[in-house]
Amino acid sequence: MEFVRSDMRNIFIVSSKYFWRLCRLLIWAAVVQLTGCTSNSNVALDQAGMLDVQIGQMLMVGFRGLDVNDNSTIVHDIKNRHIGGVILFDRDIAGRNDIRNIKSPAQLKKLTAKLQSAGAASLLIAIDQEGGRVCRLRPSRGFPETKSAQYLGQANDLSLTNREALKIAKTLSGAGINLNLTPVVDLNINPDNPVIGKLKRSFSADPKIVTNHAAEFIKAHRKVGILCALKHFPGHGSSTQDSHKGLTDVTKTWTERELVPYQELIDQGLADIIMTAHVYNAELDDRYPATLSKAIITGVLRDRLSYDGVVISDDMQMGAIADHYGFETAIELALEAGVDIILIGNNTAYDETAAARAVEVIKKMVRSGRISPDRVNRSYLRIQRLKQKL
């Protein structure tokens, strides 16, 4: 009994911050236990109310607006559909508007706070803040200047990369953003690549340089509690086309060297999330692009490279997917392939009902037996393990 009393005293003297973190962990553990007990029964999942939660956590969606309230669709999706993540953009491409979610540091901080408070579970709030040209937080809107990956790779000074990455990470932390969809670990094999090389998004053509600088980038983000996503698996650097605009075939240009940064960073425990590429590679799968390929995601990434973390798709509305596969078919193939989080950017095209449609599509697949409850559960558990890092 004395041990119990002493232990209780220790709990109550910790700060409220750590007390509530402990509570969240205990609640999460209980949910995991419940999920594990019911994962083989679709009926039990529905009765426990877990299927909707699990499916919602597997979605990350974009939305319009500098502010949100209880009447906003995205808030409704977070509260009632349990959406696990959102992605922010500076410009609205579909609406041809230079303003979408980001106007100033103060405005952004208020927006993310409202989004985070909308749901019962921790929300992934993601952004593409790579540095250089791919930057959603621009200096013209009050955010710090950044360096491109190519600039840092050419300088080849790891301390410089760490400092620049830490500056980005602190900016994100101050803005309430907890996931940076970077670093790009594509090798700069084709400098004329319209979506990688020409935009200076790659550190180098040398896999060792790419690995070293990506590692510093991730370590800097972890210092302030920001998650990172390696992209674009299994490699987009050798492509000659932009997968935003259509099918991109890398069969004749891709090499095994493009897997090296992934293997090294996985082995170092530095892969929080890995984002897939919408590239077609007949050497790895002669039927489907990587995002929809079980041979690539499960066969190469999970089995061969021994990765058991979260896999997120690139935007499912990009031309390489949207122009060749229907909404339902694309989601089903991505889940069968091994994707854990379906990303619907809602920017190249805009559909306010996208989250609702995706939830219903996945529920229908589970109920019809096309996707098993256990498959949904595995993704859900990976996502919850990831969120415990926040």
Give an account of the 3D structure.
The protein folds into two domains: 1-38, no CATH class; 54-387, TIM Barrel (Alpha-Beta Barrel), CATH 3.20.20.300. Helix content is 46%, strand content 10%. The chain has 15 helices and twelve strands. The protein has helices spanning 2-13, 16-38, 42-48, 50-57, 73-80, 105-118, 149-155, 158-175, 207-223, 260-267, 294-304, 319-322, 327-337, 354-368, 373-387, and strands at 59-62, 85-87, 124-127, 129-131, 134-135, 179-180, 227-233, 248-249, 273-276, 279-280, 310-312, 342-344. The chain has an eight-stranded parallel sheet with strand order 11-9-7-6-3-2-1-12. Strands 4-5 form a two-stranded antiparallel sheet. A two-stranded parallel sheet has the order 8-10. α8 (158-175) crosses α9 (207-223) and α9 packs across α10 (260-267). The chain is globular, with a radius of gyration of 21 Å. It starts with a helix and ends with a helix.
CATH fold title of the largest domain:
TIM Barrel
Q: Which percent range fits the helix content?
A: 40-55%
Give the tally of structural domains: 2
| Contiguous uncertain segments of 5+ residues | 1-48
Give the structure's gist in a few sentences:
The strands form three sheets. An eight-stranded parallel beta sheet has the order 11-9-7-6-3-2-1-12. A two-stranded antiparallel sheet has the order 4-5. It has 390 residues and is α/β, with parallel strands linked by helices.
